Amino acid sequence: MPDGVLSELDVYRAEAKEKLDDNQMQRARYKLGYEVGKIDGTWHWAKSVEGLLIQKQRVFTPLHC
Residues near 54 by Cβ (< 8 Å), separated by ≥ 6? Predict the structure, then answer.
């Protein structure tokens, strides 16, 4: 979980593991103060807006060999 960022797939896995429904997950997100953003077509949860920006930069920065 780099910089506290989770993809929606990770969130759904945790939801299934804990046997929670979507409403419970949304309430937890608001209570814990997670931010949500879409990066390259996938939703992400992050502890901060800065975390989302860092993840976005990682996705869109080409790798140098």
Answer: 2, 3, 5
